[in-house]
Write a structure and sequence with these properties.
The complex is a heterodimer.
Chain A (H helix, E strand, L loop, with lengths): L1 E6 L8 H14 L3 E6 L19 H10 L3 E5 H6 L12 E3 L1 H10 L2 E5 L2
Helix pairs in contact in A: 1-2
Chain B lengths: L2 E6 L8 H14 L3 E6 L21 H7 L6 E5 H6 L11 E3 L1 H10 L2 E5 L1
Parallel strand pairs in B: 1-2, 1-5, 2-3, 3-4
């Protein structure tokens, strides 16, 4: 099964991305496919400069999902609005546009949207 | 073709959500996805005619939502949300009205639901 996610909130303010991480990790470990589109503040979850002393590192969690096989892409325009350049983003998370969201929805058996 | 229902629930300009929802709506519809946009709860304010947000340096959501048909998306307004806020039909842009039962049906029939709160 392929499960598509849309994440619209950033790290540490809400639990959304943590919930996404926990669900996605379990799906990947059971052999399912995970695709995610980071939209609005969601792009900040793959900021390579995330550095929380003594706390869970959301950037590392996103990297872990990618290493397990998840395809995670971020909205390029959202990143531009927030001043997050490609050099500020973990390398394995690629910039994309609405075309990726469309293909994600088209190819997913389930679609979950996390926002406010 | 998959059906996508986009729910716009927050008030104009106070949150980025109605504007971001608009971007998602035209992006999806522009790529031939069957997209229905529903203004519900405070989201109905996006349909009020005569908005001028130039003073706060933002783009008009009235013009934005007025244009989504050109991209192939359908615009719906939740009737009860509008009535609850004392908004009359002649005060809003052209849109399809739907009641709670119709909205429930639309959500049930959609392949993907994206909520912008």
């Amino acid at each position: 099964m392929t499960v598509g996610f849309m994440i619209r909130t950033g790290p540490y303010t809400s639990q959304n991305v943590d919930t996404f991480y926990e669900i996605a990790k379990r799906l990947l470990k059971k052999g399912h496919n995970v695709k995610a589109f980071l939209y609005e503040d969601g792009v900040l979850n793959v900021n390579s400069k995330i550095n929380p002393p003594g706390e869970r590192n959301i950037r590392d969690r996103m990297q872990e999902l990618i290493d397990l096989g998840a395809e995670i892409k971020l909205c390029g325009i959202c990143a531009k609005f927030r001043g997050q350049k490609k050099s500020d983003t973990i390398e394995s998370a690629k910039h994309a546009g609405m075309a990726f969201l469309v293909s994600l929805i088209e190819k997913s058996d389930r679609f979950l949207s996390f926002g406010f | 073709m998959k059906k996508v229902c986009v729910l716009v629930k927050s008030c104009t300009y106070g949150m980025a959500s109605p504007g971001e929802a608009y971007r998602a709506i035209i992006g999806l519809a522009g790529m031939d996805v069957d997209t229905s946009a529903v203004l519900v709860d405070d989201g109905v304010f996006a349909a009020i005619k005569g908005q001028d947000p130039s003073v706060i340096e933002m783009q008009s959501l009235e013009l934005a939502y007025k244009s989504i048909g050109e991209f192939g998306a359908k615009l719906y307004i939740h009737k009860e949300s509008m009535e609850k806020r004392g908004i009359k039909k002649d005060e809003i842009i052209e849109a399809n009205m739907l009641d709670t039962d119709a909205l429930r049906k639309m959500i049930n029939e959609a392949d993907a639901v994206i909520t912008f709160t």
